[in-house]
Amino acid sequence: MKLQGTALIMGDNVNTDVLHPSRFFSLDDRTVRSGFLQAAAGYEQIGGGDLAGRVIVAGENFGCGSSRETGARAFLLAGVRAVVARSLARIFRRNVRNLGLPAVECPSLPPLAPDVLVELDLAQGRLYVPAASLDLPLTPLDPFWVAVLASGGLLPFLGLGEPAGPPRVSLPVYQGPP
Predict the structure, then answer these.
(1) Helices (H) and strands (E) in the chain — how many of each?
(2) Coil vs helix vs strand at 70
(3) Residues 6+ away with beta carbon under 8 Å from 21
(4) Helix (H/G/I), strand (E/B), else coil: 119
(5) Structure pTM?
(6) Quick one: which of 33, 40, 98, 171 could link to 154 by a disulfide (CB 3.0–4.6 Å)?
(7) d(Cα 137, Cα 72) in Å, to the nearest integer?
């Protein structure tokens, strides 16, 4: 699986409550989407815009904090293609991969220029940054996660649903027993 996109650079220890504040928790996709990056100082305008084709590139411990899946779903709703960081918080990594969004670690990732083109080759486990002549190793993905990502997420992998990525419709609200 190969992906490329323009890097959206973020730092170290970026908390999920900054990426997607809890006040935007909802079953309504429009509400979830409207909260993306709205507590990340300096990223509010970017978060409200079209992020289709963007790859989040971050430092250490990206996605630390809350385990709310809506925080992970906001990435898909915003059109983010992948996340690559020096290290990912375990619960965040699991949540986004469950939804089919590639999230990988690149421990040797140096600081990159804003908006640089990055290319991920998940099959080869490489991150390429052509403008900087970088070819960096990714932490290898377990074959299970390769299969989950290739299926579009955990539920499609299990044969229980469609891929979680765009286009998306709001999920029905449970109304109780019939």
Answers:
(1) 7, 7
(2) helix
(3) 35, 38, 39
(4) strand
(5) 0.87
(6) 98
(7) 25
